[in-house]
Description:
By secondary structure, the protein is mostly helical.
Amino acid sequence: MKLQKNMLPVERWLRIYFGAMIAAVLLWYPWPFWEWTLSGYLLIATGIFGYCPIYAFLDGRKKGDNSTTPV
């Protein structure tokens, strides 16, 4: 399976920036914010790779919906 980029460059940079900000909280307050750090790492990873699995899932559902409603 090939991971095709599905985010705009602006969104990628914003994810990297805000992910780094969230992950940086761990440096000043190591406990109880480690869960936030994991979400920050997730934002950084999706920003670096340019692929968001949630976008791909929602786009696949939209493209796969071939049902037509009778009028």
